Amino acid sequence: MKRIAIIGGGTSGLSAAITLERARAGGAELDYAVFEEAPRLGGVLVTERIDDCLVEAGPDSFLTEKSWGSDFVRALGLGDQLIGSNDSDRITYILVHGRLVPIPDGLMFMVPTKIAPILSTPLFSWRAKLRFAREYFQEPISRDGDRDETVAEMVERHFGPEMVERLADPLLAGVYGGSAADLSAAAVLPRFVEMERRYGSLSRGMLQARKQREKVAKAGQGSARVAPRPLFTSLQGGMQQLVDAIVPQLASGAARTGNRVVAVGRSRGKWMVAPEQGSPEEFDAVIMALPANAAGRLLQKISEPLSEELQRIPYSSSIVVVCGYDKRDLASVPPGFGFLVPRSERRRILACTFVHVKFPHRAPPDRGLVRCFIGGWGNEAALSLPDGEILAAVRKDLREIVGITAIPRFARLYRWRNAMAQYVRGHLARVRRIEELRAIIPGLQLAGNAYRGIGVPDCIASGQAAAKALLDDGKS
Predict the structure, then answer these.
(1) I want to staple 254 with a disulfide (CB 3.0 to 4.6 A). Which of 124, 142, 250, 286 is the partner?
(2) What would the pLDDT profile of 339-350 be if each residue is shown by its tens digit?
């Protein structure tokens, strides 16, 4: 019987575990154990019910276009729990000189695709708008294939510095907890890199991509009219429903929570896994579903080069603050999903979501939920601030930005230290080296948000791929 250890019980570890469990239930001769340092499985997927509100401590949803996320949910028997964001009220604002300015229609993730809304928006100067117009006529250029541009470099080449400061950087801070000046364009925006190679102009490339999607959709639906898909997908009872659905399906005794793995080794073709509590156990294979730096430390005696590469992947930390209000106290809040804050505004808040608008059912009709993000790349010191100081800073920013003066009915603060991998310049080359070094170590797989995607669907796919690779090894 093949024994597999999964080290790390977050989204990736759990998706690997349920993949192995289905194979075991289908007759595969295997056993597995999930070692998790925390007292619960699920990592950042934490949902709480507070004052009749559904509060997400970690991610509140995932991108609908990453359809394998929804497929995974349906396979767990939760298809009827899938919900979409309230896109009819989807407006996102950027704070510019202390004033909230809506992101105009026709901007597809920082790429202008419609003329009229871009010309009329106060988000950008006329000088920037002229730069956008010229970009449409940019031709494909030959580039040094070995040079890995940052997002800031690429966006500035096409659209100028205003687009970087007012849109690209705050967007990436909100999604990755990172900085456009550090993140790799090839790793973070691979579609843009391919569009530039093919069309030169990102605006032309985005328009062509939209036309192609519309053509495919029209061919698929025939004469029937199909409503557009929501941008975000979540679960009726919160993202923790994923965890609550998986854990009961795992084999009895498979979950080893509150038990940190302190060492791994190899002896006579087997893996030895030493937990903090209990004796070392022998396994045929290991899935490292940990942050890359933690995986690197455990693998130091297995492969020094692999360990070093893993530990060079940097991470950012963040704080999520959720405040619940009476709806009447939010009368000054503009309609929409929330706002993003450029670094130049020098605010504590990086991004803010009006949860009761994005997912209305998560608060009673007379309540509102406001979710704020703090920290991010280069601001690790925020994690060391006392709770009271953080909450006071959040309330100050909310008062000055959207006019909320009331004391919240409740406020919850969640700290996520080193939770988000940063795909900095050279990331894809590093991942290739990691994969080459891993491949020569029998029975080792890596999973998590450190490699080829940070979202919940990416972590799911990473865990599934790791488990399937080990199952396929057993068939050969």
Answers:
(1) 250
(2) 999 999 999 999
